[in-house]
Specification:
The structure is a homotetramer.
Chain A lengths: L3 E2 L4 E6 L5 E7 L9 H11 L16 E3 L3 E2 L2 E2 L4 E6 L21 H7 L17 H16 L4 E9 L2 E2 L10 H7 L9 H16 L6 E8 L13 H9 L5 E6 L10 H4 L3 E3 L5 E3 L7 E2 L2 E2 L4 E7 L8 E6 L4 E6 L9 H24 L5
Antiparallel strand pairs in A: 1-2, 2-3, 3-7, 4-7, 5-6, 8-9, 8-10, 10-16, 11-16, 12-13, 14-15, 17-18
Helix pairs in contact in A: 1-3, 1-8, 3-8, 6-8
Chain lengths: 366, 366, 366, 366
Amino acid sequence: MSGSMGMNMRVNIFGESHGAAVGLVIDGLPPGLPLDLDFVQKELDRRAPGKSKTATARKEDDKVQVLSGFFNGCTTGTPLCAVIYNKDQHSRDYSELAAKMRPGHADYAAHVRYQGHNDHRGGGHFSGRLTAPLVVAGAVAKQALAGEGIGVYAHILSIGGIKERAFSPLGEPEENLKSLAARPFCVLDERAGQAMEEAILAAKEEQNSLGGVVEAMVLGLPAGLGEPFFDPVESRLAHALFSVPAVKGVEFGAGFALAAMKGAEANDAMYYDEEGKVRCFTNNNGGLTGGLTNGMPLLFRVAVKPTPSIARTQATVDVVKKENCQLTVTGRHDPCIVPRAVPVVEAVAAWQLYDLLLNAKKWVKQ
Amino acid sequence: MSGSMGMNMRVNIFGESHGAAVGLVIDGLPPGLPLDLDFVQKELDRRAPGKSKTATARKEDDKVQVLSGFFNGCTTGTPLCAVIYNKDQHSRDYSELAAKMRPGHADYAAHVRYQGHNDHRGGGHFSGRLTAPLVVAGAVAKQALAGEGIGVYAHILSIGGIKERAFSPLGEPEENLKSLAARPFCVLDERAGQAMEEAILAAKEEQNSLGGVVEAMVLGLPAGLGEPFFDPVESRLAHALFSVPAVKGVEFGAGFALAAMKGAEANDAMYYDEEGKVRCFTNNNGGLTGGLTNGMPLLFRVAVKPTPSIARTQATVDVVKKENCQLTVTGRHDPCIVPRAVPVVEAVAAWQLYDLLLNAKKWVKQ
Amino acid sequence: MSGSMGMNMRVNIFGESHGAAVGLVIDGLPPGLPLDLDFVQKELDRRAPGKSKTATARKEDDKVQVLSGFFNGCTTGTPLCAVIYNKDQHSRDYSELAAKMRPGHADYAAHVRYQGHNDHRGGGHFSGRLTAPLVVAGAVAKQALAGEGIGVYAHILSIGGIKERAFSPLGEPEENLKSLAARPFCVLDERAGQAMEEAILAAKEEQNSLGGVVEAMVLGLPAGLGEPFFDPVESRLAHALFSVPAVKGVEFGAGFALAAMKGAEANDAMYYDEEGKVRCFTNNNGGLTGGLTNGMPLLFRVAVKPTPSIARTQATVDVVKKENCQLTVTGRHDPCIVPRAVPVVEAVAAWQLYDLLLNAKKWVKQ
Amino acid sequence: MSGSMGMNMRVNIFGESHGAAVGLVIDGLPPGLPLDLDFVQKELDRRAPGKSKTATARKEDDKVQVLSGFFNGCTTGTPLCAVIYNKDQHSRDYSELAAKMRPGHADYAAHVRYQGHNDHRGGGHFSGRLTAPLVVAGAVAKQALAGEGIGVYAHILSIGGIKERAFSPLGEPEENLKSLAARPFCVLDERAGQAMEEAILAAKEEQNSLGGVVEAMVLGLPAGLGEPFFDPVESRLAHALFSVPAVKGVEFGAGFALAAMKGAEANDAMYYDEEGKVRCFTNNNGGLTGGLTNGMPLLFRVAVKPTPSIARTQATVDVVKKENCQLTVTGRHDPCIVPRAVPVVEAVAAWQLYDLLLNAKKWVKQ
């Protein structure tokens, strides 16, 4: 069964790329949470296509409408439904794709799973368009987290092998992090960003596409969030992040590099800082030990594969004729999805962390 | 809330390292599944400590007792409870650790989360000992999967930077895979294994520890398992894998390497093979597209950090005296947890895949 | 957390009486289920207000729009969202009710639960209007059940103490049951129905309201549906039925009358009928033994309290002024909700039974 | 899938009547909750068989062993497992019952559901013995609730048609309620109790059995517990209560009697009492309006059918020979389960209410 995740702030998303709408229902939001719908719209705009030459030409104004759960500027505490109607659909582009399965896409697996009944147009429910509702959920969670002094930030760490500097594991300065959301291309170092953009355009030119890595940091988290077996913070974040289309790897702190370290190096020795707060001298664990937050900045990275939709002719199967065939995917596609993935990664992390924060509140002595 | 995971085969684990027992309850197993309890015990023995000089000296015979849900050699379909009583506990080793938080461990985060009430002895509920019930769950799932022609295999890909060859992404020969479980040190190439063992002993000698990477492959999976938002195969496997202590990274197929590939290379072009089965020419997606199995071998890797328990003196905090302190962790510890993590990774994957397989059965036309 | 129920066909409802819309998202529907949306609309029309002088004058055409999960006349297998926009709202009727709590309604309890942030207009999320999405869920489930030969039927057993004859416990003739849905007033005996209608009008005349009992029967269920601890059929049906506003009692088979029977009378002795099917000589257990269906007709009754909204002046509290006060509820209300509850009871039962049927399919040998 | 219920205090029960043990795992308990295990044992003793001539002669000392989640006299916050080993089993009594289905029992339905693989001995997992773990869960929840000033009480309202006086809906004096638990036969009026006991013995004499009604009251609940769609207090209590074997009806407040009342009578008019607390003049709604607690005493009644195991010969089916047959159930059985159901009803209610109380804590401003 698909469509639902969350222990306390549960999100249900729905919709197809070329159906009437995409949207979500959020259960479990506390009542009286002030929501700035303009901020929600701004977050959606960060994800929206059609903004630059490095993205798909599909234009969706992506205006979110809240149908329930919102009254007098605040959440009511009852389910909040938000809908984004689809508009700029060119469904004719997709007719051939009912039979010919696009390599690297869900098409073939979904054809089997849904016994041929899924809406194949534009990937249907598997479309990256379904990340718009995720951004809405994240924009709600971010506002709730901000009220608790918690900020969620991400940048493009690399695209097509071109890297910019990583966040400082002990805590990237907050002004750097806060500056990222305003940038159309989320990097700290604009020169690196320029090189990435050029690489994207070059790939597009050769009818190809690029992937990359998104790195995220969360500041302000209290220690002790998360659960052992089976809800460590890593488990919940990875679960949600791997639900974002094209994500194929997730690592926390030093991640895969930890596998080559020795314990004396990897362990993050602890101390009380001047304010009596427990800190670590290093942050190889990315703010998570035993699956719980330890008060250090939360740090993780997400590998995004290159957009599978490319204009080149590819070998594939025709499931109607049951034969091998060639396929040239037309339509409008992002040569690199990574820049638009940044607000999605932030959104998904914000939602999961707020969910865990609500979990922790149950046990606070009142 | 912790303790439970699974949509159809739900597993609840319980226990503390130095409490009376560790164990699990499994709900949702179909009735009439023949279970070989000797196989369950053998899987537990693969994970058990005390077997070699590269592992902890703690000896637990880890005999599993099934208390319910098993009758006449088969599952009954009602909850199956299995218990492993703790025996060789040296709880005196841990008295100091109620106050002094071991770096790299759950200790400090758990102290905050549980408001000082968690059983700190040997890590309590956060102990690697809790992976024994996971192995039991996996041994049950493996038998169910075997009945459907599905096999789950893993090996040590690297320890302390020393690598052996990776599985062939298009499908490691099954005889190679099947030979792994019988080996005390799960590698294809015994020379690489020997180098790894030497590295572990050297690390132990210097009061240090090593991490590594476990690679897993699943053969025989039908196409179409998994769910979009929020239960892709990647999401569920990563969720469960990140619940295994010391795991800090998970990647599928080419994983993080995909971030530097181009689409034309990364896409796995498809064809019908001679038997009319859909196959891919490459397997960069690790058998998963759109979050669903596509019929190719499932392939993933897991980064395991070096054992945080080392005999060296480390800087840390004393949460009782609220002051900085030095800590020398005594007791018996694995200088490298990776070899014992192999059956755990297999177990967790088997459980999650069987869970998804049961999900798929609901929709089969009968 | 509210808003979600179901193990396999999960329903999430949202909306407020005087908000933009009410609706639902259904996860877990199998793909390829043919859906007749006209039937869905007809079921909604059975529940709709404004049809007769015994119901509220509020007119809602209650047109359902499907936003997702439906393609080429069938379910896709991905989440199905349906929305019913609100139209004939007279929100001015409710201004006084932000402070003065209507007796018998959710008002005061919701004011506390939602810390004053709930949408109080027309009961907000607690309104009987939220049963419209339930009817949509039921109309989908009924079509799925019909494909398996299962029919769900209900009638008005009593209103204000005026009874009609009960369904025959061993199985009301199906033609009788099938005739009910077409009637505006769901009774087998039209004279009894007429007496009930007169009682309703008399109650309305005296600014009062009536309650009643709805009785339901399900034919065609296979034996073996349901689960012990904690999902017996009784548990799941009662859970869903008690979520319908105004329901205060649920009983199965002979129900409360069983408490005064002896075992020899209450036990339903069994036999093989001529077709080799197991049957019972009596059906005091209402088709359920051990919490599972036993192949006999499922039979249950639901007590519905009189509509709490009455035009008489009542004593209550003003939570703004924190003082006792008098309240005269104006606006448009049903003097008796029971006739409109009939399709809701059917809907809720159909949904839960289909959910359990999907559960059973997982274990069928394929 | 069976075996698990609860949003915040989740209970998983396991075991079979004639297996090794019955038990439970509780997830989600807050850490630091002091638990008196003697109280748990006392509650179990209230439910235990073998105490009087009105109950089964099966003697189980029912000693509970806590295997995890308990440390230094308190909950740890990690899963608590408790086991009760089975001892006085006479499994030979049940050999005939693998084929011959006992009327009124789960036998036939379970035989179908579990495809013949369920443990049939003594009803297996469907046995009333599984209520012992429920009592353990309730004994934990009662201690947590007591810390919040909440008490859960029940008595035998009727057996075989013999009634004692009902609790006062506006609040039975607490000293009356508190006196009940100490009595072997839970009634307020001992003469009524004596008449009930005599009726039980008379039924036993004639190889018959009796049912009855249990009435429960909960004092001290804050207003605002529960959730609309789909977790009203009625829904959750009924869900759990209908999971108790033999329960066939549940009603709240005036329950089915409400169906014959008029609104002006049924509505519970409200006022501020001298302490500024909102109260109702009547309590027909049983402390629940809109599915939420309203601060009045919670009141409900549960119909328990007569024990299906009777010594008389009954007609039934032999599922092995596929033929009609006669069955005389031997073994040891309660001629009336109602007295032993009282602590079970209390336990189940305590658990569900504590679960909802934890839900409410998430939203408290801290």
